[in-house]
Amino acid sequence: MLRIALQKSGRLSDASLKLIKECGISFTNGTGKLKTVADNFPAEFLFLRDDDIPRYVADGVADVGIVGENVVVEDRSAVTIAQKLGFSKCRLSIAIPRGESYQGIESLQGRHIATSYPNILGDFLKKNNIKATIHEISGSVEIAPSIGLADAICDIVSTGSTLMSNGLQEVEVVFHSQAVLIQTPTLSNEKQKLLQKLLFRIEAVQNARNNKYILLNAPNEVIPKITEILPGMKSPTILPLAMEGWSSLHSVIQEDQFWEIIEQLKAAGAEGILVVPIEKMIY
Ligand code: ATP
Ligand code: ZN
């Protein structure tokens, strides 16, 4: 049985559970339970504080876990990142009081910086030849400058609204983070196989999220042009319409090219374009 550690409650929990569900793995979780077994996959889930997940996985108490890359890198535990998961994206940034002058990273020379991420910040400062004093604090980092504890902070930012409301401005991005699936360095062959099975499903879910199914109608003479715009997984499906001289084309497009492709299709003579989500996608 593969033991999977998930955050009990917090910014990773909902998206982690959604991913597990989309991988077709279900379980009944009595609220507040710390452990539960999946109904239809040889897996057991442990619900933990996110900060504890790298250590549980490094120690082999859990085989894999879902956690923020920021926590994994800061923790320096002996785990490997098996897959980046693309959710809970945020950045670790340095911020200073708003209105204070900043002439680039040299302005941090000799300053005091409060953070819960002393390792990541320390590496960043070293790489940039900045000598600053790091004050490690575990929470409410954003109030450190206003109470005179530090000149600057280094903390997680997603929209910047917390910085804003504390009178701070972001001046350097130190690290980009997202949720990752980590694994213990030594997995038995049997567990390795289960992990591969899980990774295969995660990949199918991620591919589906990044792609859309597209259907459109077009006069037969523009089919070659449209086939060029819509390569799809192999090539588009072409079906004749009841109306003489017209066809329906079906294909797959990438989410990030969506608007550009739609414009090209319209310009080429496509009509009645439908775009629908894909649930799972295997190449
Ligand atoms: P726990 O109670 O489990 O210790 P926590 O309060 O330490 O939780 P959360 O705030 O739930 O942690 O954040 C968990 C992870 O989610 C962070 O380590 C980071 O990777 C990511 N994260 C943090 N803030 C944001 C945000 N504003 N937007 C998106 N992701 C975020
Ligand atoms: Zn935490």
From TrEMBL:
CDD domains for this protein: PBP2_HisGL2
Residue ranges of every copy of the ATP phosphoribosyltransferase catalytic domain listed in the record: 49-203
The protein's annotated pathway: Amino-acid biosynthesis; L-histidine biosynthesis; L-histidine from 5-phospho-alpha-D-ribose 1-diphosphate: step 1/9
Gene Ontology cellular component terms for the protein in this record: cytoplasm
Every Histidine biosynthesis HisG C-terminal domain range: 208-280
Major location category of this protein: cytoplasm
HAMAP family hit by this protein: HisG_Long
Protein name per UniProt: ATP phosphoribosyltransferase
Organism: Thermonema lapsum
